[in-house]
Amino acid sequence: MNTVIMILVVMTVIGLIFGLVLAYVNKRFAMEANPLVELVEDVLPKGQCGGCGFAGCKAYAEAVVLDESVPPNLCVPGKAAVAEQVAKLTGKSAPPIEPRVAHVRCGGDCTKAVKNFEYEGIHDCVAANLLEGGPKACKYGCLGFGTCVKSCPFGAMAMGSNGLPIIDTDICTGCGTCVSACPKQVLGFRTVGAKVMVNCNSKDKGGAVRKACSVGCLGCGLCAKNCPNDAIKVENNLAVVDQSICASCSEATCLAKCPTGAIRAIVSGADLQQQSKNEAAANS
Amino acid sequence: MAAYFTLFISAVVVNNYVLTRFLGLCIFFGVSKNLNASVGMGMAVTSVITMSSILAWVVYHFVLIPFNLTFLKTVVFVLLIASFVQLLETVIKKQAPALYNMWGIYLLLIATNCIVLAVPILNADSNFNFLQSVVNAIGSGLGFAMAIILMASLREKLRLADVPKPLEGLGVAFILAGMLALAFLGFSGMISI
């Protein structure tokens, strides 16, 4: 009987002490959480892509609420709608953001790019890049092992049968995760309304490009000379299209003038599938 | 001094809690996918084991032994560890938000972990004095940290490897853990306490 009472007393006292200490600590170290942070976090798309430059959606929500200097329009995947809501919640003004999508700056698929050797190592671009810069003769081209596809937090990418990644522009949010995942910097951004893009990333001189790939940009400058609006410039042996000028053009003479077809009109995902089906039918 | 050093080495490698005593396996597999998270977990476990061992030693020697209630030690230690983890979480959330974000939910997971309960109980059963308890606790915490960091580094490498389909994920993780345990078997019997 004595032991039972002892147990009751000891357990009660120990429990009481712990309870009191916890209650005191809880009061002493109470967190005054800003409810706005949670509201802002709810608005964000939760892709955790880090495109805003913060560690994730929660980190950005905290920063944008608590720090005056953090603008509300950093969430690229959320586009204008989210920027507007975040701006309203935080009472900041948001300049509109230009919607963008990722773009593969390489057209050298397995039939068009020359290979120096067959790579049979780990199926990963970063690993392949360590071995002589990958199997392709062109040292700027897409390696085609799909590191970008694996990195996409929104599932907007797939590996095409031609060995180049395909981006579903309806799903792509332009967060830039794939852009930083690619060891060759093949992926870049383009505006959603872009008309033509140079599907090449090679900074080599024309002759070298021609030897390595049949659809590379030679840097010949024919497109630049023939562009009626001066929207194209050749930098480092590579044509660059200024989208802000190009968007208003209706002629697209550059497409016909390019000797290799490195400049291509932007087609939607559905058109692209149709195109590859046609090609497959023609081949068989 | 030499005795304490022996005790420490014994806790870290020879009687490594994860790889030779199979304690704390749930976090060992759950949090070893990523090196950063596992470093955080190792730190958290080490500090919680050390602090709760100190508390447990005090309670055991100044409350349970004088009142002849040593058979209550399991219940009391569980209560003690759970309260201590809760306390640590509240304090860290306020004082070191960066550390809190790094540890995240793992800190609370420790509250019900077998390895944290095992150390104070083994300390009590082995009749360790205060310093021995502390050394044993730090050693076993570091041993756990070493095991989980080794495991996480191996699993990060494994992500690029060509694993047979049926073994992907947890299957190959268990095989890895088995190999690690085999490697640690090499230390067995070197020190007996």
Description:
The complex is a heterodimer of chains A (284) and B (193). With 284 residues, chain A is of the alpha+beta class. Chain A is 39% helix and 11% strand. Chain A contains twelve helices and eight strands. Chain A has helices at 2-28, 35-43, 57-66, 79-90, 125-130, 147-151, 177-181, 206-212, 222-226, 243-246, 253-257, 269-283, and strands spanning 100-104, 157-159, 165-167, 187-191, 196-198, 232-235, 238-241, 263-265. Chain A has a two-stranded antiparallel sheet. In chain A, strands 2-3 form a two-stranded antiparallel ribbon. In chain A, β2 (157-159) and β3 (165-167) form a beta hairpin. In chain A, α2 (35-43) crosses α3 and α2 packs antiparallel against α4. Chain B is mainly α and 193 residues long. Chain B has one domain (10-185). Chain B contains nine helices and no strands. The radius of gyration of chain B is 17 Å and the shape is globular. The mean pLDDT of chain B is 86. The A-B interface holds A 3, 6-7, 10-11, 14-15, 18, 21-22, 25-26, 29-31, 122-124, 127 and B 59, 63-64, 67-69, 72, 75-76, 79-80, 83, 86-87, 90-91, 93-95, 160-162.
